[in-house]
Amino acid sequence: MTPPPFHHGNLRAVLLDAAERTLREGGVDDLSLRELARQAGVSHGAPRSHFIDRQALLDALAERGFLRLGDAVAEAGAAHPGDLVARVRAVATAYVGFAVRDAALMELMFSAKAAGAPPAVHAAAGRLFTSFGALFAADFRAGRFRSTDPERTQLLFVAALQGIAALIASERIAPGRGEDLVEEAVALFVVDGAPGDG
Amino acid sequence: MTPPPFHHGNLRAVLLDAAERTLREGGVDDLSLRELARQAGVSHGAPRSHFIDRQALLDALAERGFLRLGDAVAEAGAAHPGDLVARVRAVATAYVGFAVRDAALMELMFSAKAAGAPPAVHAAAGRLFTSFGALFAADFRAGRFRSTDPERTQLLFVAALQGIAALIASERIAPGRGEDLVEEAVALFVVDGAPGDG
DNA sequence: ACCTGAACACCGTTCAAGT
DNA sequence: ACCTGAACACCGTTCAAGT
Predict the structure, then answer these.
(1) Is A5's CB less than 7 Å from nucleic acid strand C?
(2) pLDDT below 50 — which residues of chain A?
(3) Residue A190 phi/psi, 5° resolution?
């Protein structure tokens, strides 16, 4: 008469959701397959059916993270079609904001363990980075960025955002300072996006 | 007749050196107090005398990392007293190079766990960041950077370097591309350090 | 195909005891 | 002051067995 396990084929999603919550409240070190199984009300061996080992769970989390971040960036990039400065600012804010809100997930996504990651993770990450290119390609052709090499500048821009997020996540600077640095980055990268030039 | 333990008061240093090696060959997850004790030829409880727990070992590693990186940056910054572009390039290369060679250590230094770190770690990190300011203070006053706010620009510059290192460490870009991005950063931040401006 | 539950090796941490 | 060694709780992983 005891009810059957109430997850019918969605245990994988349940585990991932619980893992994201744990990641947000604690950190990567708090992620335990056994604890997740406990929260889901299944035996400690059950996750094995969906994740071959702990790393597979981490990879799945990273993939979902890249997909979510890619969506956030694409959405921000579509918001201000006519205003380049506002668009760059929106994308930068979305990127840094995601990294701040989900610092542990972001750390997971960009950890050294991403090396040799499964194809799905690599694909999701690639989708994010190429979307940056599509957002500003026309503006690069129009010479609205302080650069001669679009690809280099795009990477450097992403690197700057990534670095701002890292400084905030490691509490080297306060979260509020992030907006200042985003503004400084916009001023630096975009021609005429700056209050001053020297 | 068995020899006494051959570490007389330097077990702490022996453990830290072994930990740095493990960090370089493997990753943070490979760091085990028991394994380090084994390598040092002491009992598994011995490290307790020098590190209250695993986190204390990690903190000590982070502190040493910040000190080494601070030295490397200061040395690079003293190399080209008369040539700003060369100096900025040297500092950037030193920073990114350190992050690439000791990727796992760098990740440890900037991990979210740096939050609430002991004063020694915070002090070592602060020493690094303030040294950046001292290196370029005069050049900022001379208006040789594309900026109106020296502190913001310094932070953004560090963020860019940090981001370049992160992209390389996570294998999002090849290590060789790091030099390109450093060059692009120099061109962008330093007035007249660029091949082109639009 | 998915889940259970026992088993094994490993780890961090604590602590009384030795020198 | 520093190290030993037993003890405990917890974890990842494997695997035979159930449904």
Answers:
(1) yes
(2) 1-5, 196-198
(3) -95, 130
| Bridge partners (DSSP) listed for residue B145 | B190
Residue nearest to nucleotide C3 (CA to C1'): A46
Residue B11 forms contact with A (CB below 8 Å): no
Helix (H, G, I), strand (E, B), or coil: what is residue A16? helix
CB of A128 closer than 8 Å to CB of A121: no
Please determine, for residue B127, whether its predicted confidence score (pLDDT) is greater than 70: yes
Identify the CATH class of B59-189: mainly alpha
- The full set of domain ranges for chain A reads 1-52, 59-189
Q: How far apart are CA A114 and CA B172, in angstroms?
A: 9
- For residue B8, name the pLDDT band (cuts at 50, 70, 90): low
Query: What distance lies between CA B179 and its chain's CA centroid?
Result: 18
- Domain pair B1-52 / B59-189, same fold: no
In Å, how far is B95's CA from the nearest CA of chain A? 13
| Rounded distance between C-alpha atoms, residue A103 and residue A90, angstroms | 19
Q: Kindly indicate whether the domain formed by A1-52 is annotated with CATH number 1.10.10.
A: yes
Tell if the pTM clears 0.90, that is, is over it: yes
CA/C1' separation B40–D2 (Å): 15
Instruction: Return the structure tokens found at A25.
Output: 């409240």
Chain A touched by B123 (CB under 8 Å): no
CA angle, A125 then A128 then A133, to 5°: 130
- Cβ atoms of A184 and B147 within 8 Å: the answer is yes
Q: Which of A141, A152, A179 to mutate to test the interface with B (most CBs of B within 10 A)?
A: A152
pLDDT in tens, A6-63: 556 799 999 999 999 999 999 999 999 999 999 999 999 999 999 999 999 999 999 9
Note the pLDDT of residue B3.
Answer: 41
Give the residues across from B190 on adjacent strands.
B145
Whether A106 contacts B111, CB under 8 Å: no
Contacts of A180 in chain B (CB under 8 A): 152
The DSSP H or E segment spanning B153 is: helix B150-169
Strand C and A49 CB separated by under 7 Å: yes
